Amino acid sequence: MAARHIEADTPELRARWGSFAWTDENAAQAEKIIARYPEGRQRSAVMPLLDLAQRQVGAQTGTQGWLPIPVMEYVADCLAMPAIRVVEVATFYTMYNLAPVGKFHVQVCGTTPCMLRGSDAVMATCRARGMAVGQTTPDGMWTLTEVECLGSCATAPMVQINDDNYEDLTPERLDAVLNALAAGTTPEAGTQEPGRHTSEPVGGPTTLREMVDANHDYRSDW
Ligand code: FES
């Protein structure tokens, strides 16, 4: 289960983030997002605006980004809604970081399909590289979080790192992904299983084989 806490609301936090405001580019983007919703329903934009704010904080800190309380209050002001309603949304979804994170946020799925397919070894690989759950490494590179199912069970075990999923992991494959990120390159996201394209059966189709090369009408087979 993801351990989450809201970063304390301190004078230092206020001094750093109390004057948060959209960049010109994000102000235009926020306006566009809010305009998607009917008059009187602008609060529905809270999730994309929180995401936008987190990305702006990320750009300003060289990290994946997070949501200091003054930034959540800023989003609340933009939408004319009580700040507590924004905090309720931000605390519900693990996609929002409530405390500072590193450049790369490694979210390891530990739910049953991933656990049965090797998430313990995936987690051990992260620990062997100096990561600890709920913490950021001293060099600011990695934050490790254990999360619940991220919806890629067919390619378990998997991790999400910032915006990308890396799937069909083994300790060696995860090491290769982390080494590539540390070296400043972008490893190919998705399955890391050689020969597998997405989530189709490993080794090729096991059903509807006649459909592989051309459309096939199965009705006469029934
Ligand atoms: S259980 Fe890990 S992605 Fe679903």
From TrEMBL:
Protein name: NAD(P)H-dependent oxidoreductase subunit E
Keyword Transferase: no
Gene3D superfamilies: Glutaredoxin (3.40.30.10), NADH-quinone oxidoreductase subunit E (1.10.10.1590)
InterPro entries: NuoE-like, NuoE_dom, NuoE_N, Thioredoxin-like_sf
Similarity comment: Belongs to the complex I 24 kDa subunit family.
Organism: Croceicoccus esteveae
TM helices/strands, residue ranges: none
SUPFAM superfamilies in the cross-refs: Thioredoxin-like
